[in-house]
Design goal:
158 residues
Length: 158
Amino acid sequence: MKTALKESNVITRWACPLCGGSTWKTNYTVALVDDDGEEMADCICQGCMKDGPEGAALRMRVEAERLRERADRLDAMAPEVAAIAPDDWTTVERAEDFSREVDRQCMEYEAEADALFERRRNADLRAAADARENTAGLPVYDERGELTGFVKDGDMPF
C-alpha cells in the first residue's frame, strides 16, 4: 500500500476517509492505493499526511472508535425515531414551506428598509429644497449620499 498524489480541478474541502478531518482547499488530492494501484481511500487530509503512516494509522483507530460510539448511539435511538408520530416529523414539504416563509419575511423586511430609506431621502431632498428657497444655498452630499450641508452660489467648492 502507498499514497498517490493526484491533480484536482475541484478546489474545496473534502472529508478525510481515514480520520474524519477535512482537507485544505488545494488543487491536489492524495489517495491511498493498494499494490495493484486500486484506490482504497481518496482525499487524505494534510493532518494524516503530516503525521506519516504510523500517525495516520493512529488517527484511523481514533476515528474508528468514534464511529463505533456513533453507531451505538444511532442503534439506541432508532426505536425512538421509528415511534415519532407523523405530525411530529418534519417533511420536505413543510421544510420548503418554512423556507419560502423565511424568504418572504426577508423580502418584506428588505422592502420596509427600502421604503424607510426612500422616505429619509425624500425628507433630505425636501429639507434641501426648503433650505435653498430660504437661504439660496445648494445641498451638499457626502460619498454615501448623506446631506452634509448647504452652500450659497458664490461659495461653491468646485
